[in-house]
Design a protein that fits this description.
With 204 residues, the chain is an alpha+beta fold. The protein folds into 3 domains: 1-91, Herpes Virus-1, CATH 3.30.40.10; 96-142, no CATH class; 157-204, Double Stranded RNA Binding Domain (2-Layer Sandwich), CATH 3.30.160.60. It has 7 helices and 10 strands. It has helices at 2-8, 32-38, 72-93, 121-127, 148-151, 177-181, 193-203; strands at residues 21-23, 29-31, 48-50, 57-59, 110-112, 117-119, 139-140, 166-168, 173-175, 190-192. The radius of gyration is 19 Å and the shape is globular. The N and C termini lie far apart (41 Å). The relative contact order is 0.12.
Length: 204
């Protein structure tokens, strides 16, 4: 139950707990800093923001992202959840490395949910290099609550931890939100990756 609730309290852009969440007119919420990050122009020059979830465009006033109200209810729920689960998360963050040998084990700094193993910095470089098949694994900090859905996602090679959930029709390759917003695909034709897959499946 706690893991399921935690997933709902994570921002779809940064995949971490909401921080200063702002609610768009479409009722989707995102962290303040995440909304600033996906703007296609400097905050003081941007005229609109595109919702990463439903892709509706909303005008931005003179206040920039502050045009959108803070989601106080969501912020309160996140704070209470983190307070309630702080002790458990702290214990998980102090977990020793699973690969270190001997009694003196290093402190785990990274956790691979796919491998179900925790690594210190040294062992991670040796046993889990981010290349080949391992490059598709989702790496998180120890103690971060996740769900099976987040464990299986394929992440962007250009933006660490961001899911490849969009498709660039111009380049004919999967991309993430940040590739579309601030990366090299921001002026390309993009669509939802599921729709692109469905169209290609029919063509074959």
């Amino acid at each position: 139950m706690a893991s399921s609730l935690a997933a709902e309290l994570h921002c779809a852009i940064c995949l971490d707990f909401y921080s200063n969440p702002r609610i768009l007119p479409c009722q989707h919420s995102f962290c303040y800093t995440c909304l600033v990050q996906i703007l296609k122009a400097p905050p003081d020059q941007a005229k609109a923001v595109l919702c990463p979830s439903c892709r509706q465009k909303f005008a931005i006033g003179e206040l920039g992202i502050d045009t959108f109200p803070r989601n106080f209810m969501l912020a309160s729920i996140v704070d209470k959840f983190q307070e309630t689960h702080l002790e458990t998360m702290t214990e998980e963050k102090s977990k020793p490395c699973d690969l270190c040998e001997g009694e003196s084990k290093g402190k785990a700094t990274k956790c691979c949910k796919k491998c179900e193993a925790s690594y210190c910095d040294s062992c991670f470089q040796i046993y889990h290099p981010m290349r080949g098949p391992l490059a598709k694994h989702v790496i998180q900090a120890p103690g971060k609550v996740t769900t099976a859905q987040h464990q299986e996602v394929i992440t962007c090679p250009d933006h660490e931890g961001k899911e490849l959930d969009m498709y660039c029709e111009t380049c004919e390759r999967p991309i993430c939100y940040l590739c579309d917003r601030i990366g090299g695909h921001h002026e390309h034709r993009v669509c939802d990756i599921q729709k692109a897959f469905a169209r290609r499946k029919v063509s074959f």
